[in-house]
Amino acid sequence: MHTPTFTGIEEIDSPAIIIEREKVEQNIDNMIRIAGSATRLRPHVKTYKMVEIVQMQLDKGIKAFKCATIAEAEMLAMAGAGDILLAHQPTLQKASRLRQLIHKYPEVRFSALVDNLHTIAMLSSLWTGEQKKLPVFIDIDNGNHRSGIQAELAEPIAQHITETAALQLMGLHVYDGHTREPDPEKRKSQIDIEMEPVIQLRQKLQNRNDGFLELIAGGSPSFPVHALYPDRICSPGTTLLWDYGYAKKFPDMPFVCAAWLLTRVISTPGSNLICLDLGHKSVAAENPIENRVFFPDLPDAKPLIHSEEHLVLQVHSERVFKTGDALLGIPHHICPTVALHDYAWLAEEGKIEKTWEVIARKRKINF
Asked: Within this chain, do residues 193 and 305 fall inside the same structural domain, yes or no?
């Protein structure tokens, strides 16, 4: 994996995150190519949280998006997205903020997930008297066991929604984040087996209600599989920026790492040891210490200590490091890494001149 050379990097303080615009555009093009059309995509914005990357997708014809927070939903509305799914079942507090957003942006179709009667009752009560029904999707658990209801138990939920005057059943939502099989054929087999109850449920509900129900399916690793079925809407997210963890585990997927972490040597505490200014507060630290950041120029570097503001590496290189030396690394997990930075530096044709605000890292923008 080649480390790029950026003009202007010496003017940037570290730690910092750098986004390569051309690679983001390449990833968007590959998403559309795999899906077959931009209309089959509902990408998740949790990875990047930046208006400018939303606008890049809008320019390519992608109109529908998925998000996890009210701030992300507001960012999408600010950017001009026309169809926004809050893919995080709302509490009363979040539902109240969502209603405020809907009043602010009446031209946008906002929707939410539900998986139980209590939430349905809460949303129904909150939306009673509103001019428009709240579109909702039933969140289906097909093996991830994080949220949602099993397909076999979802029919009463669907029936209750259709009998609720304030809500409108739009379809089903399935996130298979547990899918981590590296072999493409085995991955497809697993997904097909786990999706069968969902397909059956959808058909039953369509027959009963005499109407089409959308099926939003998948994350990034499962994206190419769901894209094979024209009646599914695909919702990858990490594909926009990609990261070393996915690149290493899923080499069959044609996405490129578009985000780099800039760090510098701040100390050389011992023989073959360097200390970098890349701590927990600059790169996601939920993985084991050896799976947090990869430096292509130091492929054999061994991380020894990782604390709030420091990363100590044992290096096996003829290079002699001195304080101030810069390194570029690729995060293993890009999504929580971006959220640690207020802004990203933008590289265009290898030149860094401006920044993009990571605006939706906030818990609240206006609402």
From this structure: no
What is the spatial distance between Cα 359 and Cα 196, in angstroms, rounded to a whole number? 39
For strands 134-140 and 109-114, give the pairing. Answer: parallel
Is 250 a domain residue?
no
Q: Is the pLDDT at 148 greater than 90, yes or no?
A: yes
Are both 213 and 286 inside the same structural domain?
no
- What percent of the chain clears pLDDT 70, i.e. is strictly above it? 100
pLDDT at residue 248 tops 90: yes
CATH, residue 41:
3.20.20.10
Point out the least confidently predicted range of 49-58, 84-93, 206-215, 343-352.
Answer: 206-215
Q: Are residues 167 and 294 in the same domain?
A: no
Average pLDDT in the 14-18 region?
98
Q: In what order do the strands lie in the sheet with 167-174?
A: 64-67, 83-86, 109-114, 134-140, 167-174, 214-217, 233-234
Same domain? For 33 and 137 the reply is yes
Tokens of 269: 């505490």
Share of the chain above pLDDT 90, in %: 96
- 220 shares its domain with 269: no
> Could you list the residue range(s) of the whole structural domain that residue 262 is in?
9-16+255-361
Specify whether 37 is located in the same domain as 165.
yes
pLDDT given for residue 2 in this prediction: 87
**Of 237, 268, 283, which residue sits at a domain end?**
237
Let me know: does 201 contact 156? Beta carbons within 8 Å: no
Confidence of residue 209 (pLDDT cuts 50, 70, 90): confident
Is 2 contained in some domain?
no
User: Contact at 8 Å (CB) between 17 and 357?
Assistant: no
Does the pLDDT of residue 123 top 80, yes or no? Answer: yes
